[in-house]
Amino acid sequence: MQHLKNIFALVVIAGLLTSLGCGSNDEQEPAASAEQEAAQEAASTAFGIGNPAPDFALSDINGNEIRLSSLKGKVVIVDFWATWCGPCRTVMPTLQALADTYTDQLVVLAVSLDQDPQKAVPPFAKKMGLTFTMLADTRGPQVASQWGGVNRIPTSFLVDAEGVVVHRWQGVHEKAEYEQQVRKALGLS
Asked: Which of 8, 11, 49, 153 is 20 to 30 A from residue 36's alpha carbon, by CA?
């Protein structure tokens, strides 16, 4: 049994080293133990691709409530991120480019995991020139938990027009990788 735990710990460490992302609790709490990371990964696996996306309602930076289920019929990227996360900042221009390219077919929802999102997100969005939907609600971490326990950020999920999760990205990826999956979900490739 200890041998399996050691192997699993090595796999987790290798995954963390190769996925350019921030821990969901960087700069806020000590890092999660290997057992906690394993439990989060198991929850994420149980959540899985091919399952209906958990519905949520969160406030955007203007105070408007956005409900995921109201977007059925559109393809949606749900991105979990924070303003203090360098890799998250790197992904934002890619998400903006996708939102601009597929304006009528794709919705990007950026769920902030900042401690005080109403204070942190609006100036960040303005500075970066982001026009897609920035959700700045203190309930963001609860939503992340419903989505399989997001343990690294950025973590983005692609939801098809039927409301089913069809892809997940962790860390930073090339725009072409996102676009390939978005086009597939839109039926364009």
From this structure: 49
Residue 97's domain comprises: 2-186
Cα(153)–Cα(147) distance, integer angstroms: 13
pTM metric for this prediction: 0.78
Residues with active-site annotation: 85, 88
Q: What residue type is assigned to position 125 of the chain?
A: A
| pLDDT tens sequence across 109-131 | 999 999 999 999 999 999 999 99
Type of residue at 179: E
Q: List the chain residues with pLDDT less than 50.
A: 1-20, 24-34, 36-46
Distances (CA, A) of 73 to 42, 47, 76, 77: 30, 22, 9, 13
Based on the structure, what is the number of domains in the chain? 1
- 21: domain CATH number? 3.40.30.10
* pLDDT attached to residue 99: 98
Contact assessment for residue 77 and residue 107, using Cβ atoms and an 8 Å cutoff:
yes
